[in-house]
Fold:
Amino acid sequence: MADDPESELVLVRTRAKFTNEDAAALWHRIVATRDEVSAPIGNVFINLSGNKLTSLEFLCLPFAHGLVHMIVAENALTSLASLSLTNVVSLDASSRWSMGGNRIPEFDAPPEAIESLLELNLSCVGLRSLGLGLPRTLESLLLHNNELAGLPDELEEMHGLRTLVLSSNRIEAGGIRALPRSLQHLELSDNPLGELPLALGGLDELLTLGIGNCSLGDLDSRLLVSCRQLRRIAAPANGIVDVDPALLGMPSLRSLELSDNPCASDHAAITRLIAGASPDLRLYLDGGGDGAGEGEEDSDASDDADFCVGCGLRTPEAILLLCDGCDASWHPECARVDAIPDGDWFCPLCCGTVPLN
Structure:
């Protein structure tokens, strides 16, 4: 441990078959070593992914003043009620938690444990309810691949929330009654929405919207045009027959992905789309086109290709990485992976680092 003005605590033991007792013993040794240094604790980094933890009550960390980043994905956690983190994260510290791949049906962390939480990843945990008491400090909430049917209305009061990932749940349009106006990135793909939630209206800071495979018959241009800064809409694999010219001419919109929709295979509809699109709008009609009109010819390969969760596009000629945690597909460049991994690979959603393009 370096004798710096502020020292750091680091605990990394992944896929080590650690039990609660193993983790507690190691953690206490690290804290005891820290106590020999008079400097206060700055940042804390904990990665215990892929072990056998059923509880996190062994953690005891007073006086942390920086960022507390905790990754405990792929363990055997079933509840967060044991997180007595009153002594773990002090009021002047911020924290990021990644807990994907456990089995946590309800978010039941004590309010005092999450009062400074900036990022929470509960992807692939079988979550059925968010309960009450989500921290208003959250900037990123990742809930991919769960069993949620709706969201609590209190979400509207989380004025700092920028990223909300809800793909692969059971959410219908009526299950989203309120959204924070601070949202910049919203991912709703692979939900049975049926129609766009009315709560989308007037999200002035929204930049990207993912609504692929949501059983949509059309794109409600009234709602979408009211999102004045919206730059990218990914709406593949729906039942969209046509698009309102008001949406095609939206000044801020730069990318509209419509592959695997009826309008992407009908020549008359394609002609209308191209004619109505603003000069700055890039249309994707087959998943691999580079601009308006390049999706006129559908290919069998594009019909069989998976969508990249990171960019929302379907490129049949590209390499896709398949996550061993949630089965999501990613382009290596979207997941920021430089080399194809040899063994198991867990995507940014499962690991808590989401580079949304």
